[in-house]
Structure formats: C-alpha cells, structure tokens
Amino acid sequence: MTVVPRWPALLLLAAVAIGLALVPVFGETYAIKVATRMIVFAIFAMSLDLLLGYTGLVSFGHAAFFGLAAYTLQIYSPEYEAVNIALALPVVIGVTAFVGALIGALVVRTSGIYFIMVTLAFAQMMFYFFHDSQIAGGSDGAYIWVKPVLAVGETILIDFEDRATLLWFALGLMLAVYGLLIMLLRSPFGQVIQGIKVNEHRMRALGYDTYRYKLVSYVISAAVASLAGFVYACIDGYISPELLGWKESGIGLAMVILGGMGTLFGPIVGAVAFIGVEELARERELVGFLADHFQIIMGCFVIAVVLMLRNGLAGSLGGAPRAKPDPVETEVPGGEKP
Amino acid sequence: MDLTLLLIQLLNGVQYGLLLFLIASGLTIVFGIMGVINLAHGSFYMVGAYLAWSLTAWTGSIFWALLLGVPLAAMLGLLVERLFIVHLYNRDHLQQVLLTFGLILIFNEMQSIIWGDDPHSVPKPDFLQFSIPLTEVQSYPAYNLFLAAVCLVLAGVMYWVVQKTRLGMRIRAGSSNPEMIQALGINTKVLFATVFSIGTTMAALAGLLAAPERSVYPGIGEQVLIISFVVVVIGGIGSIKGAFVGAMMIGLMDSLGATILRAFDDVELMSGLSVDNLTSVTVYALMAAILLWRPAGLYGRAH
Fold this sequence. Notes:
- The complex is a heterodimer.
- Chain A has a two-stranded antiparallel sheet with strand order 1-4. A two-stranded antiparallel sheet of chain A has the order 2-3.
- By secondary structure, chain A is mainly alpha-helical.
- Chain A has a domain at 17-243.
- In chain A, helix 2 (29-55) packs parallel to helix 6 (163-186) and helix 3 runs parallel beside helix 5 (112-132).
- Helices cover 68% and strands 4% of the residues of chain A.
- Chain B has one domain (3-256): ABC transporter involved in vitamin B12 uptake, BtuC (Orthogonal Bundle).
- By secondary structure, chain B is mostly helical.
- Chain B is globular and about 65 Å long.
- The longest helix of chain B has 32 residues, at 3-34.
- In chain B, the strands form two sheets. A two-stranded antiparallel sheet of chain B has the order 1-2. In chain B, strands 3-4 form a two-stranded antiparallel sheet.
- The interface between A and B is large, with 44 and 48 residues.
C-alpha cells in the first residue's frame, strides 16, 4: 500500500494551485475572498480525510477544532495591534492539539456509529461553551481588529491585511500540508493507521496498540484543522460560535466525499467544487428566488453526490490508490471475474 | 432553594425526559432495525411543531391539529423512506450521515419558504389554560401535566406494541438479526418502511404535543436532534429501555442541573465565564462520563 499520487492527480492539483494563485492577479476583492475560503476548506477537508479515508474514523464534530483555532487566535491577539504570526501560529496549533488530545482520549475509545455521535456531542459541547459564555463575545461573535503580521524585529515580512498575501500564504500552507500528509502516510505510522482502517482486529493481533495510533492520528488531524481555522479567522477577522457548529462539520464531510475519500488530493478538489457550487447557488440571476434559500440547492447537491458519486470526483482520476482492496478479488485468486 | 421549587424542577425534568423519550425511541428503533442513522429525525419534530401551529390556527384546537397532523407526518415519513432512505440500507454510516444531512438542509429551507422565519406560539386548549397552585406564589401549568401524562401513555402503548404484538415481535427480531427474519419469509421492505414511518411520526407527534408549551421557531429540529443523539448514546444504540433511562437522566440533569448551577451565577471561573454558563455543557459532560464507564452505552451492544 503506497501512497503515491498518479500523474493525472498531480497535474490537476497543479492546475488548481496555479488557478488559485492567479486569482489576486485578475480577480477583485470578492473573488480573492472566495478563493481563500476554497483553500481554507481544502486544508480542513484534508485533515478530515486523514481520519475518514485513512484511519477509518468518521468524525462528525471536526469543525470544533476549526472553530477553536479561530477563537484561540482572536483571544490571543492583542486588541489594538497586530499579533506576530511566528508566535500566534504555534499557540493556535498547540492549544487545538491539546484539546484534540483531551477529546480524542475519550472519543477514540468508541467506534462506528458511537464515534460519529460522540464527536458530534463534543463539538456541540464546545459550541455551547462559546455560545453561552461571554468569552469572545458569546453568541454575537467577535472581531480581530488588526490582522496578524509576520515580523522579524521591526520589519514586517508578511501582512494579512493584504488579501493577496493571505491567499498566497494559505496556498503555501495547503501545499505544505498535502506534502507532509503524504510523507506521514508513507511512513510506518501511516501504514499502521491504514491497516487499522482495513482491519483493526488484525492490527491488534499483530501487536499494535491501535488505541494510541488512532489517538495520534486524531490529534494530528485536529492540528491540521487548526491551520484552516487560523487562516479562516484572518479572512474577515470575524469569528462566531457557528464556526464550531455541526453544519460546518457536515460540510467538511460532504467535501471529502465529493472529492473522493482516501485520496488526499480529492478533498482539495471537493472543497473547491463545493464552494464553487455554493457561490453559484447564491447567484440571483442563475437561481432566482432560491438565492435566498440556497441551502435547499446545497441539500439536493449533497444528496446527489451521495447517490451518484460513490468514489468522488477524484475516484475516476486515479489519486492515491484506495486503501481498501476489493474483498471479492482478493479472496478468489485466479477466479474469473464476473 | 425551597422544596416547592425543587418539586417544580423535578416535574419539569420528568416531563422533558418523557418528551425526549418519545423522540429518541424513534431514532433508536430506526437504527436498531434498519441500521440507518437518520439525522433528519429532528426535522420531523420541527414539521410536527409547525403543523401544530398552522393546523391549530386553521381548526381552532390543538386536538384537531393532532388528529390531522399525525397522518400527515406518517405520510411524509413514508415518502422520505421511499424516495431517499431506501437507498441507504447496507450503505456505510458516512453516506447515511451525509444524505440525511442534505435532507436537513432541504427541510430547513422548506420551513423557511412555507412558514417563514418568525417564532410563533401555539394556544393551549381552553380547559388546560389554568395552573395548579402549589403554594401561595408558585403553581404548575396544567398543560405540562397533561403533556407528561400523554407521553407516559404513549410510552406504555409502545411497550405493549413492542412486547405483545406481532409487529413488535418482528421489530425485536429485526433488531437482533435482520438477515434471519428475511430468511424466515418476512417482507423486510414493508417492515422497514413501517418502522421508519412510525419512528418519524413519533418525532412529529412530540413536536405537535410540545408546541403549545414551547414556542415554534426555526432551528428547533436540530436542537432536539442533537439532544436525542445524546439520549440514544447514553442508553445504548438500538435499546428502547436504554432510550427511556437516558431520556430521564437528561431530562432531570437539564432542569435540576440548571437550577443548581443558577444558584452559583455570581461565581466567575474566569472573565466572561460564570458557572451558570455551563448549563448546556452539563448534559454532554454526563454523556462523556457514561461513555468512559461503558463505551457502548448503558444497555447497548457493540455494533
């Protein structure tokens, strides 16, 4: 089981990355914002794919880490001056990974449908924590008034106030995450978690402490999701409890399935396509009065994806080989295919 | 805290618990027999509540609304099963979660298109308008007692159906071994459609019944859905007994826990976070504690 993306996948990925990178050159503010959101959700969907597609854990509460990262950045930022990215990014990743380890230690004990429901419940718990208390504005949300900068001494190298800079930074982050996750999946650790996905009992029989492997995978996934939350909070500088809500988690799942689970580059394609469709569904000239109710279009879209695109958009393009071999083919060696 | 207040909160907790049981039992049966996670379960509660509002406005009484609303909800459940859920048998949980997530988005927007986004209140029936005085200052609304009584009767009826009737026998057999009952010649297609329709109708019925006590507003479906998930997880997925115990625990935790925490509302844990802000968090903490002790819930089998 090697995780090597095939050529069509890499070509498509390159095309998507170049396309997104060129948006600030040709597009206006709104287009840059949409493109940045696409990148943010691509990172988020990849973090989810590590759990769904490679560890076999269906998390329905992953937005909790996305939102927590955004909140951590808001709380950590001083009110009237810019926070330094070199300090803020490690803090955001650290806090999210720590909370991920706490929650993960509990949820990884369960499996299957319990895992789905328990991750949802923990995400709701965090949602209500921020919604009911007055930390960072409660249900009203809060603003990051001055966007983060990367500064060495007095010289400012990167300023997120500039939308194009933020987009390019996010794009770099996305490609780095993609590369690092591929390396992770090719490492012995990655081989073990993929083994757990296919048959956990067998991995345990081989002597692997599967609980710890799943927990580490969960924490890594939370940390990657925190990168997405970090960038998201910088787009408009506005955060609200809805970022942790179960709808965001559901949208993440939809993007992974749309792009193709267990392919890693599929979720990137899925995120770009999903947000593209969402933008079209909000276009009044295109859909008429439904633009006010665009979620109805997204609902139909999600259902259509589940019913028609079982392997996702990437399935036909040949991304990384799917972890699960066809049981019929492996059990009947030399047998004729039907 | 005096004793009457505690009694009122106890009654509230039991009543909320019974209502939750009505909703959660449908969710747990559908999973136990059909192996389908139905996220859109809460949407049927929402449909029930909105039907209560518009049918009461039309007919003038919540009882007519119940009489008309229940068959409508049953038909809607059947329609959804035939159109969408039927594709989900033998699919993995992820696809079930996603498809029913899509259904929620559609249901919510339909609600917004048909009924609008304003909150509404539903009038209680005249003869249940009064309150039962407990002391000179405190009293308990009669409708809440009526609601608790109806839920209790429905729970009894459900116990009877599941334990004593042929349909109940099939439901119990189906939840322990679906392949076997199919092999024994029972039409699972009809059974599944029936069970799904009954389950969703119970959620809608809960919405109809609760509408006069709680108001009707967008988003109630999700609130109910997630709390019923907690109930089902605590009780053990697929177990009706577990759903009852879980619903009671959550009901009591919600009302008593809130009362106790509110007594400490001047205690600040940190700036912006006082103890009574944690009311909504307590039920999830209870669930976490129970799962630490029993990862498959109180009465659940590992699926």
